[in-house]
């Protein structure tokens, strides 16, 4: 093997090891996980997805639900080009489980400054957890291009 081949081979192996370490660090230390999407909303033959979502719990009653002393579930429906509800109020220190789905096309679900970053696939329930430590107004944005009004698709999360 040529000297340079050996050097480049060595660099590749080191980089691969570094990437694996970064992946492990993100997962173990920063708690960055792939979103779970085990729940699927079933549509009856001949039915439409929007009706199925609106008649399936928890999306038949979207919004904030307190499920424990500091635990909340927030159920959100995404539809071009809005999130419903578009204003979410939570107390500081709340442990939140976000459950969200889309009734039409693929949307994004991103709250900058947090670890909340999901893709909402029509008919699939995307779930993520987050603890809001600090009060403030957070922006919930769609970050998957979803059509003409994509840039207007957002909601507000107020942590008091
Ligand atoms: Cu969008």
Salient structural properties:
2 domains; binds copper (II) ion; Immunoglobulin-like; single chain; 39% strand; six-stranded mixed β-sheet; 20% helix; alpha+beta; 160 residues; three-stranded mixed β-sheet
Domains, number: 2
The DSSP helix count reads: 2
Radius of gyration: 20 Å
Q: What is the SS-derived class?
A: alpha+beta
| CATH-derived topology of the largest domain | Immunoglobulin-like
CATH homologous superfamily label of the largest domain: Cupredoxins -  blue copper proteins
CATH C-level label of the largest domain: Mainly Beta
> In total, how many beta strands?
11
Largest sheet report: 6 strands, mixed
Q: Average the pLDDT over all residues and give the rounded result.
A: 92
- What order do the SSEs take from the amino end to the carboxyl end, as H and E? HEHEEEEEEEEEE
């Amino acid at each position: 093997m040529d000297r340079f081949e050996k050097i480049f081979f060595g660099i590749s192996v080191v980089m691969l090891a570094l990437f694996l370490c970064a992946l492990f660090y993100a997962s173990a230390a920063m708690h960055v996980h792939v979103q779970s999407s085990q729940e699927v909303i079933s549509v009856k033959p001949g039915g439409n997805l929007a009706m199925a979502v609106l008649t399936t719990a928890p999306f038949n009653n979207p919004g904030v639900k307190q499920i424990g002393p500091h635990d909340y579930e927030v159920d959100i429906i995404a539809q071009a080009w809005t999130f419903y509800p578009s204003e979410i109020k939570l107390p500081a220190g709340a442990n939140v489980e976000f459950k969200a789905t889309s009734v039409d096309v693929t949307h994004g679900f991103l709250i900058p400054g947090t670890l909340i970053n999901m893709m909402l696939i029509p008919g699939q329930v995307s779930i993520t957890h987050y603890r809001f430590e600090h009060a403030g107004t957070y922006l919930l944005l769609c970050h998957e291009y979803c059509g003409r009004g994509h840039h207007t698709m957002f909601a507000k999360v107020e942590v008091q």
